Q: What sequence folds into this?
């Protein structure tokens, strides 16, 4: 009711203890195209939906390589995500030059969260309107983090952000217990299936999704469209083969129902005059 009295400045608290400008930035993440991430012990897979503004334009890049062992997927304002990915790239280069070793994923995520938090405490700045899924591999294993515009960060086994991401979350919640021991190929398949859940009836093609992988012995890279399309065709073919197998069962069920109906007709002839509820 009185929200407009307290949302003109990012440093103004509401009586309920809320910063509305920060919440608006988090809402911008929900409006962006979906991005998902999932990890096993050795690999992390990122995926996103490529959404173009019109049929005449190309889609904007939503997955960025930060270093050989780190990559990010974004949802929200792509321009903000591009700036933050450049910042992360510079931090990795500086750390590698100084210490001659790759930057640990957790340390980079903390630095990114600190940078986002500053924008929630300065009246002349605005929060970044982008959420980042950070995938990486270091000495402690594979990691998947979510960085929020509020400056919070969380580590996940699997997560989805962006518009219609709840459908993908539901799919990941049903499957996440198997992700720890999953192979690289199984993770990629689950990532594509989770992306398909966010499309809500739209046909899944390699042109409308991007998949990236990082893992043990495999630097961060984006899979080409041909490879992704082959994977999509594989499980669509498997689904088509399962459908005919269920048809004989349905026919058998129909025959059984017909026999039961015939038996009921014969039984009904012996009870003439009886009410339907009494038969």
A:
């Amino acid at each position: 009711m009185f929200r407009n009295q307290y949302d003109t400045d990012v440093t103004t608290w509401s009586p309920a203890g809320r910063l509305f400008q920060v919440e608006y930035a988090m809402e911008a993440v929900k409006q962006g195209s979906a991005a998902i991430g999932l990890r096993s012990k050795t690999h992390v897979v990122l995926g996103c939906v490529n959404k173009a503004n019109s049929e005449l334009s190309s889609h904007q890049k939503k997955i960025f390589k930060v270093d050989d062992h780190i990559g990010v997927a974004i949802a929200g304002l792509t321009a903000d995500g591009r700036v933050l990915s450049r910042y992360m790239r510079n931090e990795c280069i500086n750390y590698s030059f100084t210490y001659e070793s790759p930057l640990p994923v957790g340390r980079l995520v903390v630095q990114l969260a600190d940078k986002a938090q500053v924008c929630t405490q300065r009246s002349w700045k605005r929060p970044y309107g982008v959420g980042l899924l950070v995938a990486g591999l270091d000495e402690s294993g594979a990691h998947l983090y979510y960085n929020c515009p509020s400056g919070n960060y969380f580590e996940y086994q699997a997560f989805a952000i962006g518009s219609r991401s709840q459908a993908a979350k539901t799919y990941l919640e049903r499957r996440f217990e198997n992700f720890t021991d999953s192979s690289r190929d199984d993770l990629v398949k689950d990532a594509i299936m989770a992306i398909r859940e966010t499309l809500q009836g739209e046909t899944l093609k390699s042109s409308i999704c991007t998949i990236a992988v990082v893992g043990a012995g495999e630097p961060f890279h984006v899979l080409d469209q041909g490879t992704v399309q082959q994977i999509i065709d594989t499980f669509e073919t498997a689904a088509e083969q399962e459908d005919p197998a269920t048809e004989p069962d349905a026919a058998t069920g129909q025959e059984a129902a017909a026999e039961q109906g015939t038996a009921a007709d014969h039984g009904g002839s012996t009870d003439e005059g009886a009410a339907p509820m009494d038969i």
